């Protein structure tokens, strides 16, 4: 039964890695899909008497979160809705300042949790489609884990000094293990960011590294959300400034005295 579960997880990863190279969607669900649309899809599949899949909606927070268990794999769908405070700030800004920025909403990220798979198997499956990861986060190897090292092809004999430097680099990295691998699958065209990111999380267990969680992010929506939250954290100060600009001078001092002190 355990082998069957591991095989299913490998097939699941293969299915995800079969998506377009730029990762503009998660499976058959495009980024930006509304919460209700995604929920209705899973509710319909769960109620379909002819469906061969086991689907359960485990938890939901409208316009924020939808947790679905599908064939022993848990999917955490994350949604975004522009904060009211940000909308108020944008409403007071000139159109010329916001014409290149649209309101973000809908699906922007999916987390996937499945039965543990050896991290090298998960990595190689993604690597076949997307190539090597863009970045690795390393920590000290205090778990006795032995990693398979990729040996580069030898083109010519290195000088003694070069060989010493190469040996030193191997020593520096031999005592570290990757706890996270990141694939950056983004591209920019016409001031628009396409694609997304994949994060593979690794955990040590019995002197081996295993993967049981992966996260997928929309590049475009992540960028907009980051921009929105920069405005969100300063919205009070921005709102005060706009109020001052739009208030007659005779009433400005009265307006200021109404602002509660922290």
Can you describe what's shown?
This protein is an alpha+beta fold and 262 residues long. Helices cover 39% and strands 32% of the residues. It is built from nine helices and ten strands. The protein has helices at residues 2-17, 35-47, 84-91, 95-98, 119-130, 160-174, 219-232, 235-245, 249-257; strands at 25-26, 29-30, 55-61, 65-70, 73-81, 105-118, 135-140, 176-189, 192-205, 208-218. The strands form two sheets. An eight-stranded antiparallel β-sheet has the order 3-4-5-6-10-9-8-7. A two-stranded antiparallel ribbon has the order 1-2. Strand 4 (65-70) and strand 5 (73-81) form a beta hairpin. Helix 1 (2-17) runs parallel beside helix 5 (119-130) and helix 3 (84-91) packs parallel to helix 8 (235-245).
- Summed up, the helix count is 9
Query: Largest sheet, if any?
Result: 8 strands, antiparallel
Order of helices and strands: HEEHEEEHHEHEHEEEHHH
Strand content: 25-35%
How are the strands of the biggest sheet laid out side by side?
3-4-5-6-10-9-8-7
- What's the pLDDT, averaged over the residues? 77
The rounded distance between the terminal residues' Cα atoms is: 59 Å
Apparent shape: globular
Question: What are the low-pLDDT stretches, counting only 5+ consecutive residues below 50?
Answer: 1-8, 14-20, 152-158
Q: How many DSSP E strands?
A: 10
Task: Output the radius of gyration.
Answer: 24 Å
The computed structural class is alpha+beta
The helicity comes to: 25-40%
